[in-house]
Amino acid sequence: MKQLCLALALCTVLARLACAHTLTVYAAFGYDRAVARAFTHATGIPVDLVHLSTGPLQARVQAEGARPQWDVVWFDGNLAMREFALQHRLQCGWLPAIAYDRAGRALLPADRCYLPVGLTYAGTLLVDVARVGEVPTRWSQLTDSQLRARVGMNNPAISGPTFPLVAGILQHDGLRAGKAYFERLRANGLKVYPTNSVTLRALQYGQIAVALVQSSAALGFAEGKPDLRIVAPSPLAELPSDIAIGAGVHGKTLQQARRFVQYVLSPAGQQVMQHADPRADSNYRPLLRGVRPLPSLARLQVAHAEVLDPTRWGPREAAIDSWFSSHVLH
């Protein structure tokens, strides 16, 4: 009897999968595979997940242009999402019943072209206190001679979450003064690496003493390492993660895409996100009422969050990345 029940249950699952279209999701998180599996288990809808880091994922969406191969896209950074919306690549105007808290509502765009999922910060300082004299707490201290050739960051042209760091300083200081600051960092021996993981390895092996990385990466990497201190200099740019549905998605696939978005923005989906990648991406601030952040977030004290204007900085990303490559990298 038990074997018969198991066989019937298996047949039911197979029947659900056979009737469902495969949903293609482009995502850039350490927990995205776990979320896709949990969603399929809960709904029977199969997911073809394309997992890439943020920069390559955004570049792939751009390269596919008017012939997108994705139904849902999900990554850190509303600046790039705004640019995709301006290019008419996203489906706008839909807002499901989501229990957003105040921060979530503040990040919700008026046209509903994408929906905020979580919040991290760009450019947190992760400091090896054993390798520095005075622990830097201000952006200006990174250009001091004591930190010459000891500061590292990601390349914003490769690392998607790093452009908001650059844009945050440009927005706060002004374009001319902000660019001059990065040029002073370069003159002081700034080291630029492709992504968070490479920058953090440079910190681990003593090639640098201060790493400018996304807050979630800093919190995860610092866990269990007493010599590493997390510093949130002011201002610190907000870096929301966002999810969107492609403009050309329709019919049954649209229904499935909406169910996926709703799952991500449900307590069940958030629980998967918070437990699947505790050493990195799970260290985000939830934006839903009743969903608590992980205890690790208590180590991050942000005094001044810089809220970036995506309509201003999204269209400027390519030009500023080009400027960074020619004036800071070389």
Brief summary of the model shown:
The chain has two domains: 2-120 and 240-297, Periplasmic binding protein-like II (D-Maltodextrin-Binding Protein, domain 2); 121-237 and 301-327, D-Maltodextrin-Binding Protein, domain 2 (3-Layer(aba) Sandwich).
Chart the SSEs and their pairings:
Blueprint: H1 2-19, E1 23-27, H2 32-43, E2 47-51, H3 54-64, E3 72-76, H4 78-86, H5 102-107, E4 115-122, E5 124-128, E6 151-154, H6 163-173, H7 175-187, E7 191-193, H8 196-204, E8 210-213, H9 215-222, E9 228-231, E10 236-245, H10 251-264, H11 267-276, E11 285-286, E12 305-306, H12 310-313, H13 317-327
Parallel strand pairs: 1-2, 1-3, 6-7, 6-8, 10-12
Antiparallel strand pairs: 3-10, 4-10, 4-11, 5-8, 5-9
Helix pairs in contact: 2-11, 6-7
Features of this protein?
D-Maltodextrin-Binding Protein, domain 2; 41% helix; alpha/beta; 12 strands; 5-stranded mixed β-sheet; 7-stranded mixed β-sheet; globular; 330 residues
What does this structure look like?
By secondary structure, the chain is α/β, with parallel strands linked by helices. The protein folds into 2 domains: 177 residues, 3-Layer(aba) Sandwich (D-Maltodextrin-Binding Protein, domain 2); 144 residues, Periplasmic binding protein-like II (D-Maltodextrin-Binding Protein, domain 2), CATH 3.40.190.10. Helices cover 41% and strands 17% of the residues. It contains 13 helices and 12 strands. The strands form 2 sheets. Strands 1, 2, 3, 4, 10, 11 and 12 form a 7-stranded mixed β-sheet that branches. The chain starts with a helix and ends with a helix. About 5% of the residues have low confidence.
